[in-house]
Design a protein that fits this description.
8 strands; globular; alpha/beta; 14% strand; two-stranded antiparallel ribbon; 188 residues
């Protein structure tokens, strides 16, 4: 059987973007925003009115993406999966993040390498057998192609009807129990 290609998102799937992003916002605005409070993709709905859409400006801060921590077990599971699957990291970015994400991958995921890092907003247009993401719009668009998607489980993406996992060990178990058919994929 040919190797399958996994498309894996970076922010809030491989790395913990929300903790650092919200820490910076909370520090400046005296708030207590956490990922557990975000019920939809529009983060600006959960910040103080004087911040509003400026919440996204924090994503433009130099150094933000370079210093993000991997989510628990992400690196070890990715290293095991890379022996069985072709892995493409698919992510979208703003300003400084392009270079910083490449540097992060070079440092933390040399077994995947920055040559397997694809910057795209329309992940459904990338050829791959399964998408592992957190953004509702990416999950829905990928499903619309007839290919399977798996969600890193967050409150803000629960409206999308896809298998969901709570972390990297659960994702690895999901893949281990999956049957890849020649005519299409079916979860077991």
């Amino acid at each position: 059987m040919e190797r399958k290609t996994l498309l894996i998102d970076m922010d809030s799937v491989i790395v913990d973007l929300m903790s650092e992003w919200f820490r910076r916002y909370n520090e400046e605005h005296g708030d207590d925003l956490t990922v557990e409070r975000i019920e939809c993709w529009q983060t600006e709905k959960y910040v103080k009115p004087e911040c509003g859409t400026k919440i996204y400006d924090y994503l433009d801060a130099p150094g933000l993406f370079r210093g993000l921590k991997p989510l628990p077990h992400a690196l070890e599971v990715l290293e095991r999966l890379a022996k069985v699957y072709d892995i493409l990291i698919v992510t979208s970015s703003r300003t400084f993040a392009y270079t910083e994400k490449e540097q992060w991958v070079e440092e933390h995921l040399p077994f995947i390498g920055k040559s397997n890092l694809i910057f795209a907003h329309k992940k459904d247009r990338i050829r791959g057998d399964l998408l592992f993401d957190d953004a509702p719009h990416n999950l829905e668009a990928f499903l619309a192609t007839g290919r399977p998607a798996v969600a890193m489980d967050y409150l803000y993406n629960r409206s999308v009807d896809v298998p969901r996992v709570s972390g990297w060990l659960a994702f690895e178990s999901f893949l281990a129990g999956r049957k890849w058919g020649s005519e299409g994929e079916q979860a077991t």
